[in-house]
Amino acid sequence: MTEFAHEFIPARAAHSLVDRDRELDIIHKAIFGAGEETRVLLITGSGGMGKTFLLRKVLEMCRERGRWHEAGRLIVPPTPGEDLVDFFHIRTHTVAGFTREVWQVLGAKKAGMQTFADALKRFEAERFHLGEVHRELSKAQDRLGESLLEDLNRLTKKSRLVLALDTAEKLLYEAGRIERELRLPPEETSTLSRLKETFFPRVRNATILLAGRPESDVLRLKSELEKELGDRFTHVDFGNFDEDSAIAYFDAVADAVYRDGDVATAEAIRSISEDTRRVAFFYTNGRPILLSLLIDYITTQGRLMDEIKDSLEEAKARVEKQGWDNVQSRIEKGLLTGILERVAPEAGVIQSLAWARKGLTAEMLAELHEMSREEVQELLKRLRVLSFIKQIGDTYFLHDALYEMFEKHVLQRVPRERREKEYTTITNWYARAIDEARKALGDALMKPLEVRGAAVGQAHARLARLLVDEMHYRWRLSPVWGFQAWEADHQEMYWANDSATQIELDDDVRAMLRETPEEDQLNGLARLEVELTLLLHRLKRMLLHAQYDEVSRICEQVRARCDGLSKPSCQLVGARMDVLRGEALARKGAGLAEAESALKGAIDSLQKLDVSPSEFDTWRRDITLAEACNNLGYLYRTMGRYEDAVDTYGQALAMWRRLEDEEPEQTRKFGLRAQHANTLNNRAWALAWTGRFEQALRACQDALEMRRTLGPEGPVAFSLNTFGLIQTKADQPHRAERACRAALNIFIRLEQPRGIGLALTALSEVSRRKAELEAVYSAEEQRKLLEEAIEHAEKAVAIFSEEVKESAQHAQALIELGCAHRDLVRILSGDERNTHRNLGEDALRKAMEVAKVDPNLRHLGIDAEVNLAWLYHYAGDDKAAEQAAKSARESACGALNLGEKEIPTKDRRLDQSFLLVQLGKIELLLGEIALQRNDLVAAGEHFAASLAYDERYAPDFRDMRRGLDKMYTLLKGLNADEFKEILKGVNQATENYKNLSSPTRMHAFLEESFGLGDAGKA
């Protein structure tokens, strides 16, 4: 036997369960006495209670040759040591990671779970292609969870499943101080939500063992499971040994040592007197891990600690006199001394592990100890059986109790130079490992698209784990350095759509704050800035889940706390909070004036903020500024302020481009490039609304090319849809259709409802615009196209009213639905015409109501009312048409601050300039009505005003061209005398409309179209 084996043999002993008959009886009944009803057992106990040991023993007893085994009756993880789903791993904190882990511990392909295997393969590609589409990723994971349930429930028709889930406390993240003050509950992993809401209630014929430390949040979980599962749930409080059990524990260890071949050590343990055992129980409170270490100390040191020499009465008197904490501290120090003074190489490994709460791999240990990997692996093979060593995957850890003891009694007391040496060595290893992981991820991102998804997922998971661990050690070496790593890594994980790693990073920071609860300054880092940053990170995740009201309320409530920071930090943190509030209001589509104020205020503050010479703070400022400009551009687009949107998106583009150029990390470049492409696509759409179609198409094609290079199809689909929308606006519906249908097909495959709604709205307009081509399509074909448009629009309305509640998109879908009915009214007659009139009117009036949620959506309400006026005209009700048109004109002029008969000058900037197009449509309608009444002078005046409004908006805009086509059709049959009347009206317009001078665009049109050479003369 090696020196190491002699030194640590008590801790090596794999002894039997002691004093766990009650727990085993409860578990046995839950497995064999519950019929086919699923039972969930929550086993709670402090660190060192042996919860993991119990889980593995139960599974061992259920497997072949175990004393609970019954052939064909149970489904149990087949491989010892790989039989637990451990929530210690970040990868298990997502539904995808959890379901994969269950599949693997059950034997993967051997378990007959082909449905899940196929679904997992699909998800790996789907996850990549969802790209930045955050909400839909969670839905894709839910579908994966459904496939696991389907397979499990098929397997459990004949046999009962026994599944063990460990470290349940990692499923919940304790809220920080400010979060608690705001009454925000602890964040949950998506796995926990799935377990509570779906997995536990719906899995059949199973016994689920869920073990965790009795933290307050785990006890909250206990209450929730009791409420949800009723009698199917049992809580097992896994407490310390009682005195008799602690005495028996010594003999259990001795028996195990004897079986391991060390008779002398076994006899030494058995010789420990009952009185000494009682004293040991008293000082350790019956915690198995401490008893194990104490037995180890007694046998390896060959002597008792001074405290253990006490009689039980003396022990109690010592505690009463010296205080429990002081006595226990001396005992813990003595136990650690017994470990630190040993000279075997394995002892050196244990000492290294004490510095590394995130664990060490064989590769890391080889570097730390200047040994070969093979030598380290041989050491670890012997270490693996120690009771205070845990192996999770390829990483080794000390027991939690030992970490706490080392931190309290050793690490906090060593010279700073020693701490720096240890943590610098560890962080240097991580820096190299992260460089390698980034290279692997970069290589994966360049693979062919068909194999890229799975490769990227694996490479990203490796990088994410390394970043979390490195940030932890950076923080312990220097909180300022750790803070910088935390912020940079969190931003990268946000761009990568990895919420689980974001939450893990934040939870690690909260844990380190709890270690120093009274300190306001953390070696040059303000605690308040850390706490507010934690809140900012959480608010960003809340935005992804559409919690707009909550985010806005919290930002407004907490904003004043930023004043407690130094000026640069106050400005930066405050601006970030304003950006989040502005985005929340903009996404909701209400409080848009407040959103504008918040975003503009943030941009102004950030532009004035001087953070030199800090490269890190400059980077944070510029990232925030780019996000703020992009969000403000989105807001302006929502408000119909397209020129402002174009300008603001342009500012964001310049910043994304520069940040991308300056970023040295290739994998972060991908994240920045995705943001660049997103803003470019948004700007293309805004450009289209200003009538600059060629420029819009170029920008959209650039964004589409960038997104195709990046790979994920979700963002590609958005660019395809934007490309189609621009083509539709440019009167190219046939070209538009292909792009919009391609987008729709991708959105359907990815099950992305928002994208589906947008694509359906776009396709509705495509079909409607095609139906306008009377020279191409027959009346029957036009009718079919419009019926198709109605079908698309109805589906879009359902999505934006039920699944994705966005006021602006809901109103636009309703307007499109109303327009499709309107155009059918134009070509139908009789009862059918009346039916579609009513349906169109209903849709357009609903759009007007939706637009009332915020004054800045009034442009959508005006759009709906203008289309309602045209609907009435097509239905033959010109009185109602004129009334609606004049009402819309009043609203549009009011919004633009124009007189009723005023054409704005070219040097005047208008916030919602697209309303000029609506005024052009109104004048065109009033001119057509006047012409039908044979009031040619009035018709000429309205037509002249219509073209003037359109020309002021954009000289070659689509609606200008449509207006000219419409007028040509209406006027081409007039005789010379009638044209004179029209001209009289055009000239009259120059007198009646402010800022309209002769010759007008209408004069030029009459000359170009009908050869009226003197058209421009009075």
List key phrases describing it.
11 strands; disordered N terminus; mainly alpha; three-stranded antiparallel beta sheet; six-stranded parallel beta sheet; single chain; 1018 residues; 70% helix
Précis, in short:
The protein is mainly alpha-helical and 1018 residues long. Helices cover 70% and strands 4% of the residues. The protein starts with a helix and ends in an 8-residue tail after the last helix.
Measured by DSSP, the beta-strand proportion falls in: under 5%
Q: What coarse outline follows from CA principal-axis ratios?
A: elongated
Would you count the extended β strands for me?
A: 11
The DSSP helix count reads 44
Helical proportion, percent range: over 70%
Q: Indicate the radius of gyration in whole angstroms.
A: 36 Å
Structural class: mainly alpha
Main pleated sheet:
6 strands, parallel
Summarize model confidence as the mean pLDDT.
87
Q: Between the first and last Cα atoms, what is the distance in angstroms?
A: 117 Å
pLDDT under 50 segments (min length 5)? 1-6
